[in-house]
Amino acid sequence: MSQSKKEVSVSAYKALGLKVKKLEENTKDLRSEGRKLRKRIKSLESSREGWKGKAVSRQEKCKIQEKKFLRQTKTIKPKRHHYPIWLITLVVNLQIYCHCSYGNIRKVLELLQKD
What we know:
Blueprint: H1 2-75, H2 85-97, H3 102-114
């Protein structure tokens, strides 16, 4: 009876040894996969930061250009006209989008002049 117990225990130890080896291999695979994923995350984060920086710089450039344009449109007068561009565009937009008559446009401008 002691021999059968030894045989069972030896076979059990061999089975456990195989399980341990499989788990160790699985652990190595998971660790290498984890390393690859961490590298991929770092590369994606750096790429995102690069794109984000480019977008921020583009937005700043757009804001600067927009400010320049607004300053220019307030002061620029087209050739052979007495009124600034913003006033001409206001009158044209009132005519096109609001369907105001020329008399009503005059009244609107008079109201704006009072304020």
